[in-house]
């Protein structure tokens, strides 16, 4: 009979052999941004699994002049990272990817954005940035290209379409605005249009050259160009509307964010001003009827390159949004606008889909450059799909125009949102018109 001491010795020997084998396996794995973790197998033997940690910077406006739409966008971004980290993202060869991300509120100040950009690059070595505004994103676009950092922004400026490391899952502002002008021309040939926007904000100015050029092509008459501050007061809005009224417009383009556009419509109602408002993507969403009041019914419409989540409840994208909300601890009431939440979510989802097209070695070695290459693989390959929340997106080297599809969301006299479209402008290069005019 073998003694207990012999059994104990054999057991100790087996344990030592397993530990040594595990150490040898660990030494053979890549080290850059790859963190080995161990999990027990069914047989009780420790097995090694690799996890690639992808560092990402996030720039948002939670306290500045665009925070009215920025806060829910930021919630969508963070919820998306939590959702994908929990559900699991894998490279083409099956290696798990986990996102490490750092969120910074730059309050819509381009100088602060530059400071945070340097922090993201120098301290955290980010491979990608989920960004926000037009002035800061345009300003940082050349730095992102030099540093090989993929930059997926909430700014859809035409200037970014030709920047090598800038992407967004929508048509640019100019293409969206041209679709609005086309819609106006279809409703009233020869319509009189007043432009109402912040003359000092890069975001608000961005599509103006394309609007003016395309309006001339389709017979819409621009009869006024009126300043409306992003941080408008009621008095500011009334002053701008009085100036617009003097031009006797049939339509008014509002190119600001939701708060100032809602104030403009309220001022028009108060002053008895006529004309229908057509409002850019960041100036109109599900909250508009409440913000602008019943006077906005039947006289306002919003431009959207996305499907409003409530209109596609049966889609995969909507189900993902709801699940992401739950995982992040949000309820429907916590997110004032599902559209803004969806826009943040979509930016992260685009990054996720690009990573899923790469093998682990290419991702770790190439970092941002590899992600850029994966995004541009859609030019001739499979487009990126967003589960019904947005049209499929393709990005070609030198021209990152995801698609050209736009909807017009009309606030009817019944207080309900009615979708018209899709509308596509194929007879005019709206991006080129803006770039040539320096918009």
Protein model, in words:
- This protein is of the alpha/beta class.
- It folds into 3 domains: about 5-50, no CATH class; about 50-170 and about 310-400, Rossmann fold, CATH 3.40.50.2300; about 175-305 and about 405-435, Response regulator (Rossmann fold, 3-Layer(aba) Sandwich), CATH 3.40.50.2300.
- Helix content is about 45%, strand content about 20%.
- The strands form 2 sheets. Strands 1, 2, 3, 4, 5, 6 and 7 form a 7-stranded mixed β-sheet that branches. Strands 9-8-10-11-12-13-14 form a 7-stranded mixed β-sheet, sandwiched between helices.
- A hairpin with a 5-residue loop joins β3 (about 90) and β4.
- α2 crosses α13 and α3 (about 110-125) runs parallel beside α4.
- Provide the domain count: 3
What is the CATH homologous superfamily assignment of the largest domain? Response regulator
What's the main sheet like?
7 strands, mixed
| Helix/strand/pairing category | alpha/beta
Helical fraction equals 40-55%
CATH topology of the largest domain: Rossmann fold
Series of secondary-structure elements, N-terminal to C-terminal: HEEHEEHEHEHEHEHHEHEHEHEHHHHEEH
Low-confidence stretches: 1-8, 10-48
Radius of gyration: 25 Å
DSSP summary, beta strand count: 14
CATH uppermost class of the largest domain: Alpha Beta
CATH architectural group of the largest domain: 3-Layer(aba) Sandwich
Overall pLDDT score = 91
Strand content: 15-25%
**End-to-end distance:** 91 Å
Question: Number of helix segments?
Answer: 16
Inertia-based shape: globular
């Amino acid at each position: 009979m073998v003694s207990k001491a012999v059994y104990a010795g054999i057991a100790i020997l087996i344990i030592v052999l397993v530990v040594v084998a595990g150490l040898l396996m660990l030494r053979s794995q890549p080290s850059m941004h790859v963190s080995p973790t161990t999990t027990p197998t069914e047989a009780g033997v420790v097995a090694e699994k690799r996890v690639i940690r992808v560092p990402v910077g996030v720039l948002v406006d939670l306290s500045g002049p665009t925070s009215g739409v920025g806060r829910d966008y930021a919630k969508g971004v963070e919820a998306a990272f939590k959702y994908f980290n929990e559900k699991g993202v894998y490279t083409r060869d099956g290696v798990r990817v986990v996102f490490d991300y750092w969120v910074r509120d730059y309050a819509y100040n381009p100088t602060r954005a530059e400071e945070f950009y340097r922090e993201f690059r120098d301290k955290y070595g980010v491979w990608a940035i989920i960004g926000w505004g037009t002035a800061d994103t345009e300003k940082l676009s050349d730095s992102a290209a030099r540093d090989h950092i993929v930059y997926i922004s909430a700014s859809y400026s035409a200037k970014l379409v030709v920047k090598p490391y800038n992407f967004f899952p929508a048509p640019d502002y100019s293409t969206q605005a041209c679709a609005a002008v086309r819609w106006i021309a279809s409703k009233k040939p020869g319509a009189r249009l007043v432009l109402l926007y912040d003359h000092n904000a890069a975001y608000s100015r961005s599509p103006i050259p394309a609007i003016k050029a395309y309006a001339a092509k389709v017979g819409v008459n621009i009869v006024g160009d009126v300043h409306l501050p992003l941080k408008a007061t009621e008095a500011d809005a009334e002053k701008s509307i009085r100036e617009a009224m003097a031009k006797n417009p049939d339509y008014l383009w509002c190119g600001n964010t939701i708060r100032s556009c809602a104030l403009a419509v309220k001022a028009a109602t108060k002053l008895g001003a006529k004309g229908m408002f057509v409002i850019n993507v960041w100036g109109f969403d599900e909250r508009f009827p409440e913000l602008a009041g019943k006077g906005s019914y039947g006289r306002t419409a919003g431009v959207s390159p996305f499907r409003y989540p409530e209109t596609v409840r049966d889609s995969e994208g909507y189900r993902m949004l709801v699940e992401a909300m739950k995982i992040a601890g949000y309820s429907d009431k916590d997110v004032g606008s599902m559209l803004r939440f969806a826009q943040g979510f979509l930016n992260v989802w685009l990054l996720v889909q690009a990573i899923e097209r790469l093998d682990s070695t290419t991702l770790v070695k190439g970092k941002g450059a590899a992600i850029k290459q994966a995004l541009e693989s859609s030019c001739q390959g499979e487009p990126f799909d967003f589960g019904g929340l947005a049209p499929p997106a393709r990005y070609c080297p030198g021209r990152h125009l995801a698609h050209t599809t736009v909807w017009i969301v009309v606030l009817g006299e019944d207080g309900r949102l009615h979708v018209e479209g899709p509308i596509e402008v194929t007879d005019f290069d709206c991006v080129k018109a803006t770039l040539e005019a320096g918009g």
